[in-house]
Amino acid sequence: MSEITAKDIQRLRKEAGVGMMDAKKALTDAGGDFDAAFALLRERGQAQVAKRADREASEGTVGSYIHVQNDRPVLGVLVELSCETDFVAKSDEFRQTADDIAMHVSWASPEWLTREDVDEEALGAEKEMIARQAAAEGKPEDVVERIVTGKIESWYAENVLYDQKFVNPERYDGTVGDMVGELAAKMGENISVRQVARVAVGA
Amino acid sequence: MSEITAKDIQRLRKEAGVGMMDAKKALTDAGGDFDAAFALLRERGQAQVAKRADREASEGTVGSYIHVQNDRPVLGVLVELSCETDFVAKSDEFRQTADDIAMHVSWASPEWLTREDVDEEALGAEKEMIARQAAAEGKPEDVVERIVTGKIESWYAENVLYDQKFVNPERYDGTVGDMVGELAAKMGENISVRQVARVAVGA
Q1: Which of A134, B34, B54, B55 has the smallest number of CB atoms closer than 10 Å to its CB?
Q2: H or E segment at B65?
């Protein structure tokens, strides 16, 4: 049983086009072995296309959400959701997902799209702050480490789009990353959020 | 007759809330004297509010434009247009202008909002390139300088939103900066484009 690393989870999400939870579960079931986890996902029909990441994802759509207050638009969000084929890009479900994510972003205002996009400096500063606080409370070193690991997960869940819980659980109960991953598995294509823009009055 | 500088034009546009052409004309008419030019604009009713720039412009709206191709949105633009009062922010003309600018940006794709926002390095590189080309053509030094000054104006007109000719001359025949400046003069408030976001599939 080898260790399950964030790097492997990310790679599996990308190459198999699955959500974070599915990638994590497959890696756990496969005892941490990347290739075995990938094979498991394929068996389960979740990763329908091997080497999917090698195919180009140059199609897509722009989802949007405009928030109106006092009779005028005061906040707007644009989301580029990319896929591989015109067929998927035109589908209602794909376009609806793009608009849903735009609506989500208007509320959750993430700093980064995925963990890979997180600014190294910001991550380091956050880890340091958590460690300093824990140390000041007199926690021993190994406990401090575990506290940092745990609290950084919450920090990701606050600041990273793919790690945020989708704002409307009645429509989708899970993270935005899982939502995108499940759509990718269903459509059998690489699907990802490529760009997000959020413009608010006075921001 | 003192020299008319870009800095004075910018300052006049900002403090009097007028467009570039009006600012330039007033400075020319005033022999390059800033205060005299400001007074002229006030006499002409173009700069209706002295020290307008001192008032806070924290109201506004978000204009948007979504371009649909092959049955799906493939390009979106958001524009924050700011003003001083709720009254102006809610007006049809103000909101229409915000949407018009968003439509303009979808076509013209400016790099910067105003000349003040232009990246110094990009500007320097462009000037150097123009000067090198002119020198290679054997132009004397003073001519090279004039060529650089002239061609940089066209470069601004291509890359800077406020210097770009508005895309639909039937609606407004002039630059976006003039359009915003005229609206500001008409409304008697500081009005400016504060943020622009442009998201396109595959860009």
Answers
A1: B54
A2: strand B59-69
The share of chain A scoring above pLDDT 70, in percent, equals 93
Selecting from A58, A74, A82 the residue whose C-beta is nearest the C-beta of B62 gives A74
Compute how many other C-beta atoms are within 10 angstroms of the C-beta atom of residue A31: 11
Look at A72 and B64 and tell me if their CB atoms are within 8 Å: no
Reading the block at residue B179, the tokens are: 């359009």
The tens digit of pLDDT for each residue in A113-125 reads 999 999 999 999 9
Confidence bin at B115 (pLDDT 50/70/90): very high
Token digits of residue A103: 């609506």
- Count the neighbouring beta carbons within 10 Å of the beta carbon of residue A86: 13
Average pLDDT on B36-57 reads: 65
**Quick one: tokens of B12?**
């006049």
3-state secondary structure A49-86: CCCHHHCCCCEEEEEEEEEEECCEEEEEEEEEEEECCH
DSSP secondary structure code for residue B162 in this structure: G
**Is any Cβ of chain B less than 8 angstroms from the Cβ of A5?**
no
Residues of A in contact with B68 (CB under 8 A): none
Nearest residue of B to residue A56 by CA position?
B202
pLDDT for residue B54: 47
d(CA B126, CA A7): 42
Its ipTM equals 0.70
- Rounded Cα distance, B182 and B69, in Å: 33
Output the pTM of the full model.
0.71
Instruction: Please identify among residues 45-84 of chain B the ones whose CB lies closer than 8 Å to any CB of chain A.
Output: 58-64, 66, 70-80, 82
